[in-house]
Hints:
- By secondary structure, the chain is α+β, with helices and mostly antiparallel strands.
- The mean pLDDT is 82.
- It has one helix at 63-79; strands at residues 23-26, 31-38, 46-50, 58-59.
- The chain has a domain at 23-79.
- The protein has a four-stranded antiparallel β-sheet with strand order 1-2-3-4, with no helix packed on it.
Amino acid sequence: MTANPTRLRFGPYTTPALKKDDRTFCLYRDTDVVVTIWTAARIRWPRCRAFHSRGGSGLFVTDELKRAIETFRDSRRLAGAKSPHS
């Protein structure tokens, strides 16, 4: 039996109840942000930019997304996988 590489792991995940132009706090940026758009990914997730910035946007990091990132990282470490950044 072959593992399904698209299977949702470590979920379920709850998307934030935000809409475009909402203001909130992003854990990654450690600042207030404004939601710019939602991704078209399998799990839709908001993208944001720093509120007082005209720069680029990135994924909005909540406690939920932080948990997913850390769980994935830890599972790769336990499996002996190398980081793409090492």
